[in-house]
């Protein structure tokens, strides 16, 4: 059995500006850097054997701050955020009003469906956890990517209701039957 720690990257400039990020990028803010450093303190006592991140700068920087040279960080495109097509870099006020509408809305504008995003992460994270010596794995990704991954496994309503702020950690056990959510740790994002 393995354990996966799936982390949302630290706060970014676009988060503060309420802009849609997706596959485009913006740097971590001072608060985002502080969140990543708090995550380092969270992970330091844990026996991590591998670390992965999305190829987006905000995820790479978060992962590097968490690991701070302890392990190499492997960058994977499959862990990238959902693609929002022409809406990337635009105001979040342009997002659909209902969560259900996110499922296919962006496809007609050159983006991905939420199911495509979730399946992409499920495939990548399953392949990671099936590798030998992958018992305690860190993976840094993005809000919608993490949420849509969770949607592939269970009803995410309760987790979404509790929020999934920057720096939050989804902790999963992984075994022959797949991923099983143990808890959501949100404390690294609070009180900053």
List the helices and strands and how they pair.
Blueprint: E1 2-8, H1 13-16, H2 30-43, E2 50-54, H3 57-67, E3 73-76, H4 114-129, E4 136-141, H5 143-153, H6 157-162, E5 169-175, E6 178-185
Parallel strand pairs: 1-4, 2-3, 2-4
Antiparallel strand pairs: 1-5, 5-6
Helix pairs in contact: 2-3, 4-5
Protein name: Histidine phosphatase family protein
Pfam families: His_Phos_1 (PF00300)
InterPro entries: His_Pase_superF_clade-1, His_PPase_superfam, PG/BPGM_mutase_AS, PGM_Phosphatase
Key terms:
192 residues; His_PPase_superfam; PG/BPGM_mutase_AS; globular; His_Pase_superF_clade-1
Topology as a string of helices (H) and strands (E): EHHEHEHEHHEE
Report the biggest beta sheet as strand number plus sense, adding barrel if it closes.
6 strands, mixed
Assign the CATH class.
Answer: Alpha Beta
- For the secondary structure, the number of strands is 6
CATH architecture verdict: 3-Layer(aba) Sandwich
Beta-strand percent range = 15-25%
Low-confidence stretches: none
Mean pLDDT value: 95
- The largest beta-sheet arranges its strands as 3-2-4-1-5-6
Radius of gyration (Å): 16 Å
Helical amount among residues, as a percent range?
A: 25-40%
Count, helices? 6
Helices and strands: which structural class? alpha/beta
Concise synopsis of the structure shown:
This is Histidine phosphatase family protein. The chain is α/β, with parallel strands linked by helices.
